[in-house]
Amino acid sequence: MEKASIWTVKHAPASVAQCVGNDDARAAMQAWAKGWAGGKKQKPLLLYGPPGVGKSACAYALAGDMGWELVESNASDLRDKETLRRIFELSSTSAGLYGAKRLLVFDEIDSAMDRGGVPEIGKIVAEASQPVILIANDAWNPKLAPLWPACAMLEFKSINTPALRSALEMIAQKEGISTEQAQQLASGAKGDLRSAINDLQAGFASERERKSASMFRVVGKILKAATVQDAVRAGDESGADLDFLSRWVEQNIPAEYEKPDELARAFESLALAALFSARIRKRQNYSLLKYVRALTLGGVAVGKDAAYSKFSKYQFPTLMSLLSSSRAKRELAKSAFLKAGAHLHCSSRDAKDALLMVLPIPGAAEHFSITEGEAEAAAAVLGIKLAAGKETKAGKTGKNDGGYAEKTTDGNDGRTVADDGENQEKNGEKNSKNKKPASKERASRPEAKSSPNIIVKTLADSFG
After folding, report:
1. Residue 263 and residue 275: Cα distance in Å, rounded?
2. Secondary structure string (H, E, C) spanning the chain
3. Which of 5, 20, 75, 248 is deepest in the core (most CB within 10 A)?
4. Are 324 and 352 in contact, with CB atoms under 8 Å apart?
């Protein structure tokens, strides 16, 4: 997905006034910026609060309001000495391009502190001659204590439900979808606007599915149209956006057209339409949209030699079906990354990297309070395998102390421990002699209580 198509970016506030909720914090930010504009040096701001309440969005919008050059950085930049040196130089110089001030924004600062970033950030905060905003989820983390005296603290609270509902309804209206889903999401968002917007976009495929019955008729009109004008009119009357229509047309061309040369001409028109769409995105030249419309609808329609009078069985676009069916799994994986991030005091993005290494360790999911379903979904996203159960001769699996299934054999010719016990009784062998292999296996297995130590060691070796 292109960045511009992500709704949190597409519908980001252009000014601080357009941000949702936290009126007092926004007013304080504007007063702080006016102080800088008036020539009075201000303390750096430390914005803190739960995820998704608009901290970063307000910082970026403030730069736009003031006409400042935005220099943004996140936790990963603190690992690179060259990047730190460049940021320090930018913060200590007097002005940016054309004499404008620079606004330095450090996001996820609390996770940066876990990587020894206190001295570098402290130096920038102490000596900066440009406006600086630090952003954290938990400003009262003891690792941030050296920054407290040097910063002005501004708390961002969870956004109330009416404000959330209003913002989501406005986005839904701009995207041309029903506001009913926006209202439902606002009630369960728990003050997290960013997640609610992501959920609204993820549910957009479901909203479109409810329109699929009428879309079958629209596609039929387009593919059976005799002229460019008829095909374009059918698309316009449907009220659907062009990208949506393109996916429906692409999916159903083979169902309507029979001759190879007809198929070739139809798909060539779609390819040319895609080329024009790419030029529109790159050059922001929306005057080319008329060619996309004509090629996607009319070009495909006149690609056939003559209209077919047969009944054609049209299908819902495969890509949209896949996105809709995988939504639940994506949500489970997202929940796993958020839980791991909360335990590791880092962003969900960094937690995703951590789980890539530690999730296969027995007991790791339990350590992070990740459910079995969340662990499986996260493993699928990460492309890794969890510890899998193996069947015994009886067709059942045993479980080790860490809660993961394992083979309950003693390693001798595939015989199970239960089989050995029976042989011991029959042959009169000593139990102590025959139990040694099983004891060795138990001794070599890590117990559940040691799993957190393994996890911590793995993370320490990886991140230093």
Report:
1. 18
2. CCHHHCHHHHCCCCCHHHCCCCHHHHHHHHHHHHHHHCCCCCCCEEEECCCCCCHHHHHHHHHHHHCCEEEEECHHHHHCHHHHHHHHHHHHCCCCHHHCCEEEEECCHHHHHHHCCHHHHHHHHHHCCCCEEEEECCCCCHHHHHHCCCCEEEECCCCCHHHHHHHHHHHHHHHCCCCHHHHHHHHHCCCCHHHHHHHHHHCHHHHHHCCHHHHHHHHHHHHHCCCHHHHHHHHHHHCCCHHHHHHHHHHHHHHHCCCHHHHHHHHHHHHHHHHHHHHHHHHCCHHHHHHHHHHHHHHHHCCCCCCCCCCCCCCCCHHHHHHHHCHHHHHHHHHHHHHHHHHHCCCHHHHHHHHHHHCCCCCHHHHCCCCHHHHHHHHHHHCCCCCCCCCCCCCCCEECCCCCEECCECCCCCCEHHHHHHHHHHHCCCHHHHCHHHHHHHHHCCCHHHHHHHHHHHHHHHHC
3. 248
4. no
Residue reference for tokens 């006409």? 67
Digit-coded pLDDT (tens) for 147-178: 888 889 999 998 988 888 889 888 888 887 77
Is the domain 3-155 a CATH 3.40.50.300 member?
Answer: yes
Please name every residue paired with 153 in a beta bridge, in sequence order, or none if there are none. 46
Distances (CA, A) of 378 to 79, 338, 440: 26, 11, 33
Q: What would the pLDDT profile of 372-410 be if each residue is shown by its tens digit?
A: 888 888 888 888 888 754 333 333 334 444 333 333 334
**Residues 218, 207: Cα–Cα separation, whole Å:** 17
Q: Which of 170, 172, 138 is nearest to 156 (CA)?
A: 138
Task: Mention every residue, 6+ apart, whose C-beta is less than 8 A from residue 214.
Answer: 238
Higher pLDDT, 275 or 457: 275
Instruction: Decide if pLDDT at 67 tops 80.
Output: yes
pLDDT for 263-274, tens place per residue?
999 999 999 999
Rounded Cα–Cα distance for residues 267 and 29 (Å): 53
Of 430, 393, 425, 427, nearest to 410 by C-alpha is 393
Q: Exposed, middle or buried: residue 90 (CB in 10 Å: 0-12, 13-18, 19+)? A: middle
